[in-house]
Amino acid sequence: MRQILFSIGIALLLGGIGYAQPRPLESSKSTKQADVAPAPETFAAKYEGGMFGYSKKEEGIVRFDDENERLVFIGQDQQEKFHIPYHSILVIYPQSKSVTSTAGTVVGAVAGGAIGNLIKEKRQYLIVHFDDPDIEAAKGIVNFKLSNKELLDSVLIGLAEKASLVQRGDAYYRPKKPAPRRL
Questions:
Q1: Sheet containing 42-49: which strands, arranged edge to edge?
Q2: CB crowding 168-181: b at 16 or more within 10 Å, else e
Q3: What are the pLDDT digits (tens) for 7-55?
Q4: Is 165 left (phi over 0), alpha (psi -120 to 50) or beta?
Q5: Lower CB density within 10 Å: C or N end of the chain?
Q6: Which H/E stretch holds residue 171?
Q7: Residue 128 to residue 107: CA distance in whole angstroms
Q8: DSSP 8-state secondary structure symbol assigned to residue 175
Protein backbone atom coordinates (compact mmCIF):
# COMPACT_ATOMS: atom_id res chain seq x y z
CA MET A 1 0.00 0.00 0.00
CA ARG A 2 2.85 2.34 0.85
CA GLN A 3 4.42 1.79 -2.57
CA ILE A 4 1.15 2.51 -4.35
CA LEU A 5 0.72 5.85 -2.51
CA PHE A 6 4.35 6.72 -3.21
CA SER A 7 3.90 5.93 -6.92
CA ILE A 8 0.70 7.99 -7.11
CA GLY A 9 2.46 10.93 -5.38
CA ILE A 10 5.37 10.78 -7.84
CA ALA A 11 2.96 10.56 -10.80
CA LEU A 12 1.01 13.61 -9.57
CA LEU A 13 4.22 15.54 -9.00
CA LEU A 14 5.60 14.74 -12.43
CA GLY A 15 2.22 15.35 -14.06
CA GLY A 16 2.02 18.80 -12.45
CA ILE A 17 5.46 19.71 -13.72
CA GLY A 18 4.47 18.71 -17.24
CA TYR A 19 1.55 21.15 -17.24
CA ALA A 20 3.52 24.11 -15.91
CA GLN A 21 3.64 26.91 -18.43
CA PRO A 22 6.51 29.36 -18.49
CA ARG A 23 5.54 33.00 -18.14
CA PRO A 24 6.48 35.22 -21.05
CA LEU A 25 9.30 37.67 -20.34
CA GLU A 26 8.11 41.14 -19.49
CA SER A 27 8.87 43.74 -22.07
CA SER A 28 11.54 46.25 -21.07
CA LYS A 29 9.18 48.98 -22.27
CA SER A 30 6.69 49.65 -19.51
CA THR A 31 3.24 51.10 -19.98
CA LYS A 32 4.55 54.16 -18.14
CA GLN A 33 6.73 54.99 -21.15
CA ALA A 34 3.70 55.28 -23.41
CA ASP A 35 2.21 57.95 -21.12
CA VAL A 36 5.37 60.08 -20.95
CA ALA A 37 6.09 63.00 -23.28
CA PRO A 38 9.37 62.90 -25.22
CA ALA A 39 12.34 64.41 -23.42
CA PRO A 40 13.25 67.97 -24.39
CA GLU A 41 16.68 68.54 -25.96
CA THR A 42 17.54 70.99 -23.16
CA PHE A 43 15.99 71.53 -19.75
CA ALA A 44 16.62 73.56 -16.61
CA ALA A 45 18.18 71.71 -13.70
CA LYS A 46 20.12 72.41 -10.54
CA TYR A 47 23.40 70.52 -10.23
CA GLU A 48 23.51 69.21 -6.67
CA GLY A 49 26.96 67.60 -6.71
CA GLY A 50 28.82 64.41 -7.52
CA MET A 51 31.24 65.31 -10.32
CA PHE A 52 34.89 65.38 -9.27
CA GLY A 53 36.13 68.96 -9.23
CA TYR A 54 32.66 70.56 -9.15
CA SER A 55 31.52 70.81 -5.55
CA LYS A 56 29.44 74.00 -5.88
CA LYS A 57 25.69 73.62 -6.37
CA GLU A 58 24.61 75.56 -9.44
CA GLU A 59 21.51 76.31 -11.50
CA GLY A 60 21.96 75.63 -15.18
CA ILE A 61 20.83 73.74 -18.23
CA VAL A 62 21.29 70.08 -19.09
CA ARG A 63 21.49 69.30 -22.80
CA PHE A 64 21.37 66.05 -24.73
CA ASP A 65 24.29 66.29 -27.17
CA ASP A 66 23.30 63.42 -29.47
CA GLU A 67 25.88 64.34 -32.10
CA ASN A 68 28.70 63.68 -29.62
CA GLU A 69 26.68 61.11 -27.60
CA ARG A 70 26.91 62.83 -24.24
CA LEU A 71 24.91 64.57 -21.51
CA VAL A 72 26.18 68.14 -20.97
CA PHE A 73 25.72 70.49 -18.00
CA ILE A 74 25.91 74.20 -18.87
CA GLY A 75 26.24 76.61 -15.93
CA GLN A 76 24.68 80.04 -15.36
CA ASP A 77 27.57 81.67 -17.21
CA GLN A 78 26.51 79.72 -20.35
CA GLN A 79 29.78 77.76 -20.26
CA GLU A 80 29.95 73.97 -20.40
CA LYS A 81 30.90 72.79 -16.92
CA PHE A 82 31.14 69.03 -17.56
CA HIS A 83 29.76 66.24 -19.68
CA ILE A 84 29.07 62.53 -19.27
CA PRO A 85 29.36 60.30 -22.35
CA TYR A 86 26.30 58.09 -22.87
CA HIS A 87 28.50 54.97 -22.93
CA SER A 88 29.90 55.85 -19.47
CA ILE A 89 26.49 55.90 -17.80
CA LEU A 90 25.98 52.84 -15.58
CA VAL A 91 22.71 53.48 -13.71
CA ILE A 92 20.07 56.23 -13.71
CA TYR A 93 17.04 56.51 -11.47
CA PRO A 94 14.55 59.04 -10.11
CA GLN A 95 14.41 60.13 -6.51
CA SER A 96 11.74 62.18 -4.74
CA LYS A 97 12.17 63.86 -1.39
CA SER A 98 9.39 65.41 0.65
CA VAL A 99 10.74 68.45 2.47
CA THR A 100 9.28 71.34 4.45
CA SER A 101 8.97 74.28 2.08
CA THR A 102 10.41 77.73 2.80
CA ALA A 103 6.88 78.98 3.51
CA GLY A 104 6.42 76.09 5.95
CA THR A 105 9.64 77.01 7.74
CA VAL A 106 8.53 80.64 8.07
CA VAL A 107 5.04 79.67 9.29
CA GLY A 108 6.61 77.22 11.71
CA ALA A 109 8.87 79.89 13.15
CA VAL A 110 6.02 82.39 13.55
CA ALA A 111 3.03 80.21 14.50
CA GLY A 112 4.66 77.10 15.90
CA GLY A 113 6.62 74.13 14.59
CA ALA A 114 3.69 71.75 14.15
CA ILE A 115 1.82 73.91 11.64
CA GLY A 116 4.94 74.63 9.58
CA ASN A 117 5.73 70.94 9.23
CA LEU A 118 2.41 70.41 7.45
CA ILE A 119 3.49 72.56 4.49
CA LYS A 120 5.61 70.19 2.44
CA GLU A 121 6.81 70.05 -1.15
CA LYS A 122 8.19 67.23 -3.24
CA ARG A 123 11.56 67.67 -4.88
CA GLN A 124 12.48 65.57 -7.90
CA TYR A 125 16.04 64.39 -8.60
CA LEU A 126 17.72 62.58 -11.47
CA ILE A 127 20.56 60.42 -10.14
CA VAL A 128 23.25 59.37 -12.65
CA HIS A 129 25.93 56.79 -11.79
CA PHE A 130 28.79 56.71 -14.28
CA ASP A 131 32.37 55.65 -14.96
CA ASP A 132 34.36 58.88 -15.01
CA PRO A 133 35.95 59.00 -18.47
CA ASP A 134 38.77 61.30 -17.31
CA ILE A 135 39.85 59.51 -14.13
CA GLU A 136 40.85 55.87 -14.36
CA ALA A 137 39.09 53.53 -11.92
CA ALA A 138 36.79 56.28 -10.65
CA LYS A 139 33.01 56.19 -10.54
CA GLY A 140 30.82 59.21 -9.96
CA ILE A 141 27.25 59.90 -8.91
CA VAL A 142 25.75 63.15 -10.19
CA ASN A 143 22.49 64.58 -8.84
CA PHE A 144 20.29 66.99 -10.81
CA LYS A 145 17.23 68.61 -9.22
CA LEU A 146 14.43 68.98 -11.76
CA SER A 147 11.31 71.13 -11.60
CA ASN A 148 8.61 68.44 -11.74
CA LYS A 149 7.87 64.73 -11.98
CA GLU A 150 6.70 64.85 -15.62
CA LEU A 151 10.03 66.36 -16.72
CA LEU A 152 11.93 63.84 -14.59
CA ASP A 153 10.06 60.90 -16.15
CA SER A 154 10.60 62.11 -19.72
CA VAL A 155 14.30 62.84 -19.15
CA LEU A 156 14.81 59.49 -17.44
CA ILE A 157 13.27 57.52 -20.31
CA GLY A 158 14.95 59.67 -22.98
CA LEU A 159 18.40 59.28 -21.41
CA ALA A 160 17.88 55.53 -20.95
CA GLU A 161 17.10 55.15 -24.65
CA LYS A 162 20.06 57.29 -25.75
CA ALA A 163 22.48 55.42 -23.46
CA SER A 164 21.02 51.96 -24.36
CA LEU A 165 20.14 51.10 -20.76
CA VAL A 166 17.88 48.30 -19.55
CA GLN A 167 14.93 48.95 -17.23
CA ARG A 168 14.60 47.46 -13.75
CA GLY A 169 11.64 48.92 -11.88
CA ASP A 170 12.02 52.71 -11.89
CA ALA A 171 15.75 52.52 -12.62
CA TYR A 172 17.73 51.89 -15.79
CA TYR A 173 21.13 50.20 -15.87
CA ARG A 174 23.88 49.00 -18.19
CA PRO A 175 24.14 45.20 -17.88
CA LYS A 176 27.56 43.78 -17.17
CA LYS A 177 29.16 41.93 -19.99
CA PRO A 178 29.31 38.24 -19.11
CA ALA A 179 32.74 37.06 -18.01
CA PRO A 180 34.51 34.78 -20.47
CA ARG A 181 34.07 31.13 -19.62
CA ARG A 182 37.15 29.21 -18.64
CA LEU A 183 37.49 25.63 -19.68
A1: 80-85, 70-75, 58-65, 42-49, 139-146, 120-131, 89-100, 171-173, 166-168
A2: eeebbbbeeeeeee
A3: 776 766 666 555 555 555 554 444 456 677 888 999 999 999 888 888 8
A4: beta
A5: C
A6: strand 171-173
A7: 35
A8: P
